[in-house]
UniProtKB/TrEMBL annotation:
It comes from Streptomyces alboniger. The keyword Cell wall biogenesis/degradation does not apply. Keywords: Cobalamin biosynthesis, Glutamine amidotransferase. CDD domains: CobQ_N, GATase1_CobQ. It comes from the Bacteria. This is Cobyric acid synthase. One of its GO terms (molecular function) is ABC-type vitamin B12 transporter activity. PANTHER family: COBYRIC ACID SYNTHASE, DETHIOBIOTIN SYNTHETASE. One of its GO terms (biological process) is cobalamin biosynthetic process. HAMAP family: CobQ. InterPro entries: Class_I_gatase-like, CobQ/CobB/MinD/ParA_Nub-bd_dom, CobQ_GATase1, CobQ_N, CobQ_synth, GATase_3, P-loop_NTPase. Residues 262-432 form the CobB/CobQ-like glutamine amidotransferase domain. Catalyzes amidations at positions B, D, E, and G on adenosylcobyrinic A,C-diamide. NH(2) groups are provided by glutamine, and one molecule of ATP is hydrogenolyzed for each amidation.
Length: 502
């Protein structure tokens, strides 16, 4: 096999990320060497590769689905929003500056096409197949001229396009037709057909509509994927605890102890890498919820202040909503608080920021003896260490440099009483450490909670990836998909007026 496919969507959150991962896992199980690819990703959920490159977490998850090591080649352009109008541009895993949306789409984006095509060609030279994920919708005709992630990359690579639609939202037939009709004739030539996602009910009731869609567009539907709970693993920025639904439906045993642990995650502005709490949600007897009001912390056994792309803004938000005072009361009462990355920084005494917010000197919450200075160079690392007597692996993505002036050492951060802070994302995925940490939380909270001795977060993630592969294998026309990947879009696909200008 040699070829590829672009998985596009009628909208954002149509299911492109999970469909791409499912196709990667299905092909891998067939013995095909496959790699994922997304030319340009906009997300605050990112990951650090072994070579120290920052890429979207969705592409790291897709690489795991393909059973290959994630690489910057798989996501050469990552945009990390810092406001409604500007983003940090990460190119080939390294930040190259801030840019407004107008500035980016006004010229910089088109100049990156050679870079992303080069990355794609390098992957094609190393793998049997490359499964690309689009962004948003390919029918965003206002952005088509500078597009490098949807039809722009499909045209450059001559890849067939599979358009995914979320039928659970409604209007999927109109979305399929409209998406195709808005494309230029040259773009339409590559749209091979459609994939229905999140269908509930009897597929036979859908078939007349699929036949009519084929008659209207000349394009077939390659499968109807049923609705499944708990399949939103490591997507871009959807606010969900990804494995929670899956754990409920799995064979994981009920809580070992008599109590459950209640975890409240402060939903700070520009929240990043909130996937850190997925490992907590995977534990039997741990309930995780996102909160934005002080009263929602009252019954929490653990409060997590997660990462953020706007540390000073998050600090202001915590104060405005009374959450800062609630966190201070918890610390005084010896009730557990965990700050991760930006959340760690806000728990400190002082922040000096001339880089991210340019706010200068700002007082932190003063719960940890830490002073933070923002450096222009971003720290990107994959540290390994020890905490609570257990081995811990993590990854770091931050501009803030922390100077720790006291407390007990904790994963290059510190602990004072029951307030913990670290820059390490992903540390809770280390099973033995997570169990020891939860036992500490339960003790401090006065809960009769006992962590399950055999919960393996990595195994649960693999189980999810296998479920995605099963969805493709069982509910898509896999022979037809293989034909697309090997041979490209069928010749002679009809043009649907009106079409958008090239």
């Amino acid at each position: 096999m040699s070829g590829g496919l672009l998985v596009a969507g009628t909208t954002s959150d149509a299911g492109k990320s999970v469909v791409t991962a499912g196709i990667c896992r299905w092909l891998t199980r067939k013995g095909v060497a496959v790699a994922p690819f997304k030319a340009q990703n906009m997300s605050l959920n990112s990951f650090v590769t072994r070579e120290g490159a920052e890429i979207g977490r969705a592409q790291a998850m897709q690489a795991q689905a393909a059973r290959v090591e994630p690489s910057a080649l798989m996501n050469p352009v990552l945009l990390k929003p810092g406001s409604d109008r500007s983003s940090q541009v990460v190119l080939m895993g390294k930040p190259v500056g801030e840019m407004s949306a107008r500035g980016y789409h006004g010229g910089r984006q088109a100049a990156l096409l050679d870079t992303v095509v080069g990355c794609l060609e390098e992957l094609r030279g190393s793998y049997d197949a490359v499964i690309c994920e689009g962004a948003g919708s390919p029918a965003e005709i206002n952005l088509r001229r500078t597009d490098i992630v949807n039809m722009g990359i499909a045209r450059a690579a001559r890849f067939p396009v599979l358009v995914v639609g979320d039928i659970d939202r409604g209007g999927v037939f109109a979305s399929f037709f409209g998406t195709t009709a808005l494309l230029s004739a040259a773009d339409q030539e590559l749209v091979a057909g459609y994939l229905v996602n999140k269908f509930r009910g009897d597929v036979s009731l859908l078939e007349p509509g699929l036949d009519m869609l084929h008659g209207l567009t000349g394009r077939r539907t390659f499968g109807v994927l049923p609705f499944r709970h708990g399949l939103g693993i490591d997507e871009e920025d959807g606010l969900r605890v990804s494995l929670r639904g899956a754990v409920r439906e799995s064979t994981v045993a009920p809580p070992v102890g008599e109590d459950v642990l209640r975890v409240a995650v402060c939903a700070v502005p520009l929240m990043s890498n909130f996937t850190d709490v997925d490992a907590l949600a995977a534990e039997p007897g741990v309930v995780v919820r996102f909160v934005d009001r002080a009263e929602e912390l009252v019954d929490a056994d653990l409060v997590v202040v997660p990462g953020t792309r706007g540390t000073v803004r998050a600090l202001e938000w915590l104060r405005e909503r009374g959450l800062a005072d609630a966190l201070a009361r918890r610390a005084a009462e010896g009730r557990p608080v965990l700050g991760i990355c930006g959340g760690f920084q806000v728990l400190g005494e002082h922040i000096e920021d001339e880089v991210e917010s340019r706010a200068g000197s700002v007082d932190g919450l003063g719960l940890l003896p830490v002073r933070v200075r923002f450096a222009r160079e971003k720290t990107l690392a994959r540290p390994v260490g020890e905490a609570l007597g257990e081995r811990v692996e993590g990854y770091e993505i931050h501009h803030g440099v922390a100077e720790v002036a006291g407390g007990e050492a904790f994963l290059d951060g510190c602990r004072v009483g029951e307030v913990w802070g670290t820059h390490w994302h992903g540390s809770l995925e280390s099973d033995a450490f997570r169990r020891r940490f939860l036992a500490e939380v339960a003790r401090a909270a006065g809960r009769r909670f006992v962590p399950a001795p055999d919960t393996c977060f990595g195994a649960l993630r693999e189980e999810q990836l296998d479920l995605l592969g099963d969805l493709i294998e069982e509910h898509a026309d896999t022979d037809a998909l293989l034909g697309l990947i090997e041979k490209g879009a069928p010749a002679g696909l009809p043009f649907i007026a009106p079409g958008a200008p090239s």
